Every structure is written in structure tokens, then in C-alpha cells.
Amino acid sequence: MFANLLSLLVLGFFAFQPAFTAPTSTALVPRAFTGEATYYDPGLGACGIVNTSSDLIVAVSLTYFNKYPGAGTNPNLNPICGKKIRVTYEGRTVDVAVEDNCPTCAEYDLDLTMTAIKYLVDDPVFVGRLKGVTWEFIDTDGGDGGNTGCGGVAAWTATSVYTAGQKAYYGGYIWTAKWWTQGDIPGSSNAGATVWTQTSTCS
Name one GO cellular component term (predicted). Predict the structure, then answer.
């Protein structure tokens, strides 16, 4: 009888155990994206830099801008600022730097300057919205404190201290500090406009 009771207890224990579920893998974030592209007339962008329609820059969607790894409450310090992306449409491409966000864009849509979008179509006004545009990041250090920077010049970071003559890479350009500075974004409309001198482009 004891043996029968023990068998019942063992069977009951296994009967009430939850079924084993294999852990699911976390999907990798895709490197390439597909969306639509339009054009706009830039000014002071979310990254704190004043641009014009002749600059090769892009505004990503506000949704993507805010969810980019490292994004915080200050959009000027978002690590996506200065990142270079390659945009492709019907076999034509253009490389642009992220300097702004687009509040009305869908997550993977882009807003390009008129100069930039003309690399993709000859008459953007006639064509209108470009559908089926693909884009991908082509650098890993533009403006977010990466170690490689450009041409041996390290990328600008908000926490680094720079003294007169020191260089930093930000937004596709190499900048030279005029005097001691920390946290002043190169080319921005605040103190960064006077603290830094744009030395050269970086491609």
C-alpha cells in the first residue's frame, strides 16, 4: 500500500508541473530600413546645428530619433546626431548626415534637403514622395563618442574637455577648438558656434 501511495504522489507531482517552453530568441535590429522620402527646408535642427537646403543632411522620424540607443532628454546630445546614412532609390544613392528629426514622418521615413534628394531624382517637385526608399548606416562613430572618428581625429563627446587647438569629429566635419570647452556642440547655435572652427570635411 505504501508503494502505491508513493506512486500516486510522484504521478501527481509531475502532472501539475508547467510545460517547459523553450526560450525565444530576440530578433536583431535590422541594419537596413525601407520607407518613404520627402524633402524639406531645414534650419535649426534637433541636433542643435543650423543647416541649409544645400547641405547633405537628413531628418529621421521623431519615433526613430527618440528610440535610438542612448537617446535622452536633450535632443542635441542624441548619439544619432552626425551619423551618416546611405539612401538608395531606384539604383541611385546619396550619403547624408543625420541632423534633425521629422515629427510627421512614419518610423522609417526620411526628410532630405532639396540638394540631397536631387541625387535620387532629377525633379523632386514633380515626383513628390519617393516610395520604396532604402537606407542604412555607413559609419559607427559620427558624433556619438566613437573611438575612431575620422582621419585619426576622435569623435566629439559631450563629456570630453577640449583646449585650444584640439580637434574633434562631428556631423561629418572636423572641428578645431578655439579655447577650453566642454559640452559645447560643434557648429550649434549656442556657444558651439563661437568655440569651434570648422576645419575640414570628412568623407
Answer: extracellular region
